[in-house]
Amino acid sequence: MQASFHPDYNPLIRKLESIFKLTDDERQALQNLPMQMATIKEDQDIVREGDRPSRSCLIVSGFACAYKMTAHGKRQIVSFTIAGDIPDLQSLHLKVLDSSVSTISRCSVGFIAHEDLRALCERYPRITAAFWRETLIDAAIFREWVVNVGRREGSSRMAHILCELIVRLKAVGLVEDDVCDLPITQGEFADALGFSPVHVNRVFQQLRAEGLILTQGTRLTIPDWDRLKMAAEFDPTYLHLVQENAAA
Amino acid sequence: MTLTLQPVRVGNGSDEEGMLVFNGNQRLMAVLTHLGDQYGALSGHWYLETGFGRVDGVSHPTFSDLDVAKDWISRRLAHQP
């Protein structure tokens, strides 16, 4: 199935415009980018470490993650991926994938052939720059995760990842009135933060008890954004968003 | 290796019922806590709160009962996976 998004709701355009100013021509070129759509249920690998893909995957909706496994079968989630992200964009230039990408929730995914991405980049050098900027921001996010996992204490570490997710979701229009859908389980947070699931459970209880978060099923509400930011030592500079309101 | 248990209260704010785990030389090797009601399927299990020496590490497993916990700790002390 080919994708047909309204330009205002095209997740790729929306994501790139959160970090890069696009011209009308560039938006149109992105709008016309051929894409093979698929729906993938939760907890399924989209690509695996060691693969040599000939296409990259755009997350159109849902939550996914990139992860690596240790030799003893322990999983480390190295990033969370949301609508508008292309978690294996690097495979355009790095032939062998060094991490896997898995869905967290049911995802709608658009596969883009590398040859189409190459043609787009050759024709629109500023889109190449936008993708480059995106990969640089990904690297900034990885740096921040190293600091977070290596140096922040329990509740700050969790608060920081929540702040990051909220700002990123907000940048693609997925937060309304400080409420968002966050289908990431405590086990997945544990694998991302280097905690045990029991520790994640306790940290969530602590954040709730301090009034920093409200949760109802997968719905997350932030009653006081400034207090959560302070608890997280969160400075959104590393996300390099161009929209002022997205980094609020 | 014979491990011995000693009940203890753990001041972690919740799940205060705990056990100190000593090796045959009466050295403290681990602290286990009994998980309360808020953990879903893990409630009632024993959690490796912290370990020392060969029990130290990034793994903080949960165990269905104290015998399973002691087996796991014994294997770690014996350097078995």
Describe the structure.
The complex is a heterodimer of chains A (248) and B (81). Chain A is α+β, with helices and mostly antiparallel strands and 248 residues long. Chain A folds into 2 domains: 118 residues, Jelly Rolls (Sandwich); 106 residues, Arc Repressor Mutant, subunit A, CATH 1.10.10. In chain A, 41% of the residues lie in helices and 19% in strands. Chain A has 8 helices and 10 strands. In chain A, the strands form 3 sheets. Chain A has a 4-stranded antiparallel β-sheet. A 3-stranded antiparallel β-sheet of chain A has the order 1-7-3. A 3-stranded antiparallel β-sheet of chain A has the order 8-10-9, with no helix packed on it. In chain A, helix 5 crosses helix 7. The longest helix of chain A is centred in the middle third of the chain and has 27 residues. The C terminus of chain A is likely disordered. Chain B is α+β, with helices and mostly antiparallel strands and 81 residues long. Chain B has one domain. Chain B has 1 helix and 5 strands. A 5-stranded antiparallel β-sheet of chain B has the order 1-2-3-4-5. The two termini of chain B are 16 Å apart. The model of chain B has no long low-confidence stretch (mean pLDDT 92).
Keywords, please?
heterodimer, A: 248 residues, alpha+beta, Jelly Rolls, 2 domains, 41% helix, disordered C terminus, B: 81 residues, 1 helix
Furnish the topology, listing elements before pairings.
The complex is a heterodimer of chains A (about 250) and B (about 80).
Chain A: H1 11-19, H2 24-31, E1 36-40, E2 45-47, E3 55-61, E4 64-69, E5 75-81, E6 100-103, E7 107-113, H3 114-123, H4 125-151, H5 154-171, E8 179-181, H6 186-193, H7 197-209, E9 214-216, E10 219-221, H8 225-232
Antiparallel strand pairs in A: 1-7, 2-6, 3-7, 4-5, 4-6, 8-10, 9-10
Chain B: E1 4-9, E2 17-22, E3 28-34, E4 46-51, E5 62-63, H1 66-77
Antiparallel strand pairs in B: 1-2, 2-3, 3-4, 4-5
Query: Topology as H/E string of chain A?
Result: HHEEEEEEEHHHEHHEEH
Our count of helices of chain B gives 1
Query: Would you report the number of β strands of chain A?
Result: 10
Order of helical and strand elements of chain B: EEEEEH
CATH third-tier fold name of the largest domain in chain A:
Jelly Rolls
Mean pLDDT of chain A: 94
Distance from first to last alpha carbon of chain A? 37 Å
- Beta content of chain B comes to 25-35%
Let me know the CATH homologous superfamily of the largest domain in chain A.
Jelly Rolls
How many individual helices of chain A?
8
Quaternary organisation = heterodimer
- Structure class of chain A: alpha+beta
Distance between the termini of chain B: 16 Å
Computed Rg of chain A:
18 Å
- The residue fraction in helices of chain B comes out at 10-25%
